[in-house]
Amino acid sequence: MRVARADPVGLAAGHDAPGHSFSLSQRIVMPDPSRALSGNSDLSPDAAHRLIATRLAVLCDARGAALSTERLPLAQALDRVLADDVVAPIDVPAHDNSAMDGYAFAHAGLPDGEPVSLPVVGRALAGRPHDGDVGRGMAVRIMTGAAMPEGTDTVVPIEAATCSPARVQFARAAVRPGANRRHAGEDWARGDIALPAGTVLRPPALGVLASLGIASVAVRRRLRVAVFSTGDELREPGDALPAGAIYDSNRFNLLAMLRRLGVEPLDLGIVPDDPAALRQVLVDAARLADAVITSGGVSAGDADHVRAAVAASGEVEYWKLALRPGRPFAFGTLRVPADATAQPRQSVPFFGLPGNPAAVVATFYLLVRDALLRLAQARAEPVPRVPATTTAALPKRAGRAEVIRARAQRDGGGWTVAPVGSPSSGALNAMVQANCLVLLEAERAAVNAGDTVDVTFFDGLL
Ligand SMILES: Nc1nc2c(c(=O)[nH]1)N[C@H]1C(S)=C(S)[C@@H](COP(=O)(O)OP(=O)(O)OC[C@H]3O[C@@H](n4cnc5c(N)ncnc54)[C@H](O)[C@@H]3O)O[C@H]1N2
Ligand code: MOO
């Protein structure tokens, strides 16, 4: 159902997930426990991912203004998002040069006879070119990276030659014409788009910029994401732990996952299960940040006030995801207070993650990560998934996606994987024993030992 009304991010609009249609009546304005935990069918993580992308597209359009930019020296630009295309200002390499230590000569000018024997008339080093032309039938001793002297086009490596100070000899078959010569512009030609806007500057990208002689780059200001935990039971690590309390672990996990993503986290601490306190911190968060993430208080318990508080300062949808861990999930927008002059936006997205610690990790990577990269104006690459053979049967119910903490290892030509630690969504021990997540789609029924599953590794290379 499409609704014609002021609705800057389309929260009220029917969404595009097949088999699911949210209507205004399901847009939760006040939590209603009886409806929240029953009734509407579960939403697949993929459908939720698409829904969030649709909502954000509207939000980004409505926002108009992009994140502002700043110019940074290369050494400070790691993991930042490039604001503009980088066009190569020079050829790289700037001159033809040798790929090997050896002898340079013109192939077409080789004299008859076997082995070939040439007089050595000079020397070229990287940074110290040989001066002047090299005549046909002559050679120059040349080192890797040295500019090819005028008149030469081929290099025979030292290993393939016999040399005295004055002459070099080699078998004619040892080199093809043009061998071991690197051409000017073969890495980048002047005018090439070396890096498109939106590139996340990983280490090799910084190397590329340096190779182009570029000392500083325009990058987007980092996306600021506010995080707070909700729950009367939560205490700060380091504080005393009264009966019934637990330490807040989600916030530290979330702040660190955000930092890994290149986002600037804003730690708003622990907020008690108090509607007024929640409303106030949400107003502050919308003023300070580009997006807001909470954990806990989204389901339908007596102390779950997060959705109502979001509804008071914006709009919120509540989804029961067909996902384990990570079933209750709230997505919405918070109005930016009119006095927040620093913010060109009218509203910021809100992600209400479930309280259980393993559910926080699962929903962050399945639903929040791509959304934040999009808001940061980064070209997001999908997280790689690798097929692996499970060595154990995996818990699986058809109709619900499962995220299983596991360890994968190389085995012959492929990978094997097995679950580790406690499968409880309230426990974190499995997350630190694991080196990957197994992602099982909802459609899948039982998974038996020997079946192939998709794994996503925790560690990336660059
Ligand atoms: N009757 C039902 N009860 C529950 C359902 C349900 O469908 N029906 N869903 C369960 C699932 S699944 C999850 S997940 C949780 C999520 O509920 P909330 O998002 O409202 O989270 P809380 O109730 O506040 O907390 C759940 C759990 O997580 C602990 N927690 C919360 N915050 C933190 C934190 N920052 N650090 C560490 N641990 C935290 C909290 O103490 C609870 O144990 O609801 C189920 N219940
Ligand atoms: O989301 Mo809950 O963690 O599935 O337990």
Automatic annotation (TrEMBL):
<protein>
    <recommendedName>
        <fullName>Molybdopterin molybdenumtransferase</fullName>
        <ecNumber>2.10.1.1</ecNumber>
    </recommendedName>
</protein>
<dbReference type="InterPro" id="IPR001453">
    <property type="entry name" value="MoaB/Mog_dom"/>
</dbReference>
<comment type="function">
    <text>Catalyzes the insertion of molybdate into adenylated molybdopterin with the concomitant release of AMP.</text>
</comment>
<dbReference type="GO" id="GO:0006777">
    <property type="term" value="P:Mo-molybdopterin cofactor biosynthetic process"/>
</dbReference>
<dbReference type="Pfam" id="PF03454">
    <property type="entry name" value="MoeA_C"/>
</dbReference>
<comment type="pathway">
    <text>Cofactor biosynthesis; molybdopterin biosynthesis.</text>
</comment>
<dbReference type="InterPro" id="IPR038987">
    <property type="entry name" value="MoeA-like"/>
</dbReference>
<dbReference type="GO" id="GO:0061599">
    <property type="term" value="F:molybdopterin molybdotransferase activity"/>
</dbReference>
<dbReference type="InterPro" id="IPR005110">
    <property type="entry name" value="MoeA_linker/N"/>
</dbReference>
<dbReference type="Pfam" id="PF00994">
    <property type="entry name" value="MoCF_biosynth"/>
</dbReference>
<keyword id="KW-0460">Magnesium</keyword>
<dbReference type="GO" id="GO:0046872">
    <property type="term" value="F:metal ion binding"/>
</dbReference>
<feature type="domain" description="MoaB/Mog">
    <location>
        <begin position="226"/>
        <end position="374"/>
    </location>
</feature>
<dbReference type="InterPro" id="IPR036688">
    <property type="entry name" value="MoeA_C_domain_IV_sf"/>
</dbReference>
<dbReference type="InterPro" id="IPR005111">
    <property type="entry name" value="MoeA_C_domain_IV"/>
</dbReference>
<dbReference type="InterPro" id="IPR036135">
    <property type="entry name" value="MoeA_linker/N_sf"/>
</dbReference>
<dbReference type="Pfam" id="PF03453">
    <property type="entry name" value="MoeA_N"/>
</dbReference>
<keyword id="KW-0808">Transferase</keyword>
<dbReference type="InterPro" id="IPR036425">
    <property type="entry name" value="MoaB/Mog-like_dom_sf"/>
</dbReference>
<comment type="similarity">
    <text>Belongs to the MoeA family.</text>
</comment>
<keyword id="KW-0479">Metal-binding</keyword>
<dbReference type="InterPro" id="IPR008284">
    <property type="entry name" value="MoCF_biosynth_CS"/>
</dbReference>
<keyword id="KW-0500">Molybdenum</keyword>
<dbReference type="GO" id="GO:0005829">
    <property type="term" value="C:cytosol"/>
</dbReference>
<keyword id="KW-0501">Molybdenum cofactor biosynthesis</keyword>
